[in-house]
Design goal:
Helix content: 10-25%
Distance between the termini: 52 Å
Order of helices and strands: EHEEEEHEEEH
Largest sheet: 4 strands, mixed
Strand content: 25-35%
C-alpha cells in the first residue's frame, strides 16, 4: 500500500519490507468474503479449499491492498477472535465517505460500535465489528493536520475542562 503523501511522509531509508498484508482468521471464510464484498466493495482474487470444504487460504482485493483470509486451523494455533471482538488488532480503511460505507457495512451485517464523527487527527471516522469478530475503522480525510497540531489537539483532550471565571 502507498501511504497518502499528505499524512504519511516517505521513509528516510529503504526498508527491507516490501508489503504488509492483514491475514484474518475467520470461522467461515466464504461468508466473510461475501460480507467484505458487500460491505467494503472487495473483489475475490482466489481461494484454496480442502476436499472437506475448509478454506485454507483466500485473498480479496480492497482498493490497493490485499486482505488474506482463512478458516480456523486450531491444530496450527490459527483461531478466529471471539464473537465479541476481543482481538488486539484493528483494521483501518481510508475511504471516500466513511458515513456511506458504515451504512453499507451495517446493512451487510456489521455492528456499529461508534457513529461517524469528526476526529482531532483530521478524519471523519467510525468503528464497527464485522460478523466474524474483527474490528474495523472507516475514515475519510476532512482536513490536513500537521503532526504538531495533531499532538496539540491530542494533549488538549486530556486536560481538565476549563471552568468559567468565578465558578
Amino acid at each position: 500500500m502507498t501511504p497518502s503523501p499528505d499524512t504519511h511522509p516517505a521513509p528516510a531509508t529503504t526498508s527491507p519490507v516490501h508489503e504488509v498484508f492483514a491475514y484474518l482468521c475467520v470461522r467461515d471464510t466464504a461468508a466473510a468474503i461475501d460480507f467484505y464484498t458487500r460491505a467494503f466493495g472487495a473483489t475475490e482474487c482466489y481461494r484454496l479449499t480442502e476436499p472437506s470444504g475448509r478454506i485454507g487460504h483466500a485473498e480479496v482485493q480492497l482498493g490497493p491492498a490485499v486482505l488474506m483470509l482463512a478458516d480456523e486451523f486450531p491444530e496450527c494455533g490459527f483461531t478466529a477472535p471471539p464473537a465479541e471482538g476481543l482481538a488486539g488488532v484493528v483494521i483501518h480503511l481510508h475511504v471516500d465517505d466513511a458515513d456511506a460505507m458504515s451504512r453499507k457495512a451495517v446493512a451487510a451485517g456489521a455492528t456499529l460500535l461508534s457513529e461517524p464523527a469528526d476526529q482531532f487527527y483530521g478524519e471523519r471516522s467510525c468503528k464497527l465489528r464485522d460478523p466474524f469478530g474483527h474490528t474495523w475503522l472507516l475514515g475519510h480525510s476532512i482536513e490536513t493536520v500537521s503532526t504538531q497540531e495533531m499532538q496539540r489537539r491530542y494533549t488538549a483532550m486530556f486536560e481538565p475542562a476549563q471552568s468559567p471565571q468565578g465558578a
